[in-house]
Amino acid sequence: KILILDFGSQYTQLIARAVREANVYCEIIPYHQSFTFEDGLKGIILSGSPFSVNEEKAPAVDIAAFIQRLPVLGICYGAQLTAKCFGGRVDKSNKREYGRARLQRQKDDVLLKDISDGSQVWMSHSDSIVALPEGFEILATTESIPVAAFRKTGNDTHPLYGIQFHPEVYHSTEGKKVLKNFLVQICGCKQDWTPASFVTETVAHLKQQIGDHQVIMALSGGVDSTVAATLIHKAIGDRLHGIFVDNGVLRKDEFEKVLHTYRQLGLNVKGVDAKGLFYGELKGKTDPEAKRKVIGKLFIDVFQEESQQIAGVKFLGQGTIYPDVIESVSVHGPSQTIKSHHNVGGLPDTMHLELVEPLRFLFKDEVRKVGLELGIPADMINRHPFPGPGLAIRILGEVTEEKVQLLQAADDIYIQELKKHNLYSTVWQAGTILLPVKSVGVMGDERTYEYTVALRAVTSVDGMTADWAHLPYEFLAHISNEIINNVRGINRVVYDISSKPPATIEWE
Ligand code: XMP
């Protein structure tokens, strides 16, 4: 295992993902959190930071103590902090370096083994190391800065390295190789952290954690809850009781299709048809937050009622993933915010259940790999995200059963055609929105007065920012025809060309 000490860089999670991609397990902790040098801990990486090491309140750690125990690699701020701690000098550089630079190697070293001279690296710093401490040597420079990579020399127990560039970002073409050199050659990591080993270890751990107790879990049809449930099922079989609620605002045939997949996976899942209850409570509600609240609350009611039917439940399974639990280090001092889980959160503490969260340390792409390893069908694994309140926040204004059916029909055409034209996997999320306006159209000799739907498709990495997907005109023309010709009640289709920000992905 590798520990990444986070000083608040926007790239810290990318470092973790790059380390995991090399099949080495790692965890991110805030730089000021204490940790133990447990067996199996092989090295430490210091992240970048929005701070300058020369600021009065600049965050710091005891690097000299670390290298008594383990190899250390400082990245960007981490490298500057290293230089400064040992008596070097870091200054505002005349030339700030942002973006592309070329690495010029000055010395052979295992850290830069197999890295080509002139290799493109990505920089993002306004301070630079202007003088290295005594007993340190330069490994590489760039055109603009004298110290792009360095190491401490001498007889320390463990090596200490610093690099000014960001090996974790895509634009550092050989950055992953540099990280791998550190992990494998310098720290001696074995690269044995794979989806298969994760499954074996996690199942063993779940068996131990759960013992012979019962677990309940709300399933949503999404990737995270499905993978988490499959893992738990592998550990304890039918003592995992899944509950999948039809809230009336799922996609067309979704309830039946997803239940079918669960059965094929051998999961013990109860499907609960609560459509009527949801439609009843949604009646007359037009405010988006009010609709969200109704759906959230009813879901909890249904879930609680169902769980009371199961005797001796001690645990609650959840599909929480790593980005939801990483504590972020903020520029405004070491405050920590923990994001609450978007999807299944909000179950009351009064249920007195202990949490089982087998995906708590996985990134989304890793969850997908583990899912495939578990034999979950690829179309389930590669599904777009779908909001908990479902189509209710894609029907602007009041939700009625008729409107749901109208939207389901249009949405189904859109999604099926995206798949047929091999466009589904090129977008991050797609869906259809039913607008609360009717407009005039003409079909044959008849004048129509019907609804409009908006098509939405976005590209994104994490849903935080997004761009509208540039779907081909021919495809959009085809969808418009298909929807208007096949869904009675819709006579106009528009395409949403707003990015996030300033718009959002959903319309409510
Ligand atoms: P926005 O609309 O905020 O959406 O750009 C970002 C991502 O979050 C999803 N989303 C939700 N998911 N409950 C959810 O579980 C919600 O209330 C909710 N609102 C938005 C949205 O689908 C997109 O993936």
Automatic annotation (TrEMBL):
Annotated gene: guaA
Pfam families from the UniProt entry = GATase, GMP_synt_C, NAD_synthase
Binding-site positions, ATP: S220, G221, G222, V223, D224, S225, T226
- Organism in which the protein naturally occurs: Hydrobacter penzbergensis
Q: What EC designation does it have? A: 6.3.5.2
UniProt pathway annotation: Purine metabolism; GMP biosynthesis; GMP from XMP (L-Gln route): step 1/1
| Subunit field text | Homodimer.
Listed A to Z, the keywords are:
ATP-binding, Glutamine amidotransferase, GMP biosynthesis, Ligase, Nucleotide-binding, Purine biosynthesis
What is this protein's record name?
A: GMP synthase [glutamine-hydrolyzing]
What positions does UniProt annotate as the active site of this protein? Answer: C76, H166, E168
Name the job this protein performs.
Catalyzes the synthesis of GMP from XMP.
GO CC: one term?
cytosol
Reactions that this protein is recorded to catalyse:
XMP + L-glutamine + ATP + H2O = GMP + L-glutamate + AMP + diphosphate + 2 H(+)
Citing just one GO molecular function, the answer is:
GMP synthase activity
> Which part of the chain is the GMPS ATP-PPase domain?
193-383
